[in-house]
Design a protein that fits this description.
With about 140 residues, the protein is mostly beta strands. The chain has one helix at about 1-20; strands spanning about 30, 40-45, 45-55, 80-90, 95-105, 110-120, 120-130, 130-140.
């Protein structure tokens, strides 16, 4: 009985320690997205932003934001464009929430949250209205 209790206590402490180990700045870094874009997430004050740092043949060589609904921005270059805005770290949930992400392939802005950081990747959830989609971004 004592041995079982000690094992359960060890498991509980280990799980709590790994959960508590998530820090706000853990998200900072460079990531490869499924749509072939590479982004860099950075911090300004207490919020996190992301800009495009490489196109990698994105949409067969597209380099301008031609699907932007604002016609005055359709000639803007995608490289160095900030597409992730205002992510905030939630200390209770240990997630980055309340952000938005501009998707140049559709010319739309989505709600964004980062739900989990694992070794070499992060899990993100994008949503618009009642629809949501979970993606995994690979760390560079």
């Amino acid at each position: 009985m004592l041995k079982t209790n000690l094992i359960l206590l060890f498991i509980l402490i280990f799980n709590f320690a790994s959960f508590a180990a998530v820090k706000p700045d853990d998200i900072i870094g460079k990531y490869h997205l499924p749509n072939k874009l590479d982004i860099e997430i950075f911090k300004i004050k207490d919020k996190y932003y992301g800009k495009i740092i490489a196109l990698n043949g994105y949409q067969d060589g597209v380099t301008k934001d031609f699907k932007n609904p604002d016609a005055s921005k359709q000639n803007d270059l995608l490289l160095n464009k900030v597409i992730i805005n205002s992510l905030e770290f939630d200390n209770i949930e240990k997630q980055w929430v309340n952000g938005s992400m501009y998707g140049p392939e559709k010319g739309m802005v989505f709600n964004l949250k980062v739900t989990e950081i694992r070794e070499g990747e992060i899990e993100v959830v994008g949503s618009k209205y009642l629809f949501w989609h979970t993606l995994v971004w690979k760390k560079l």
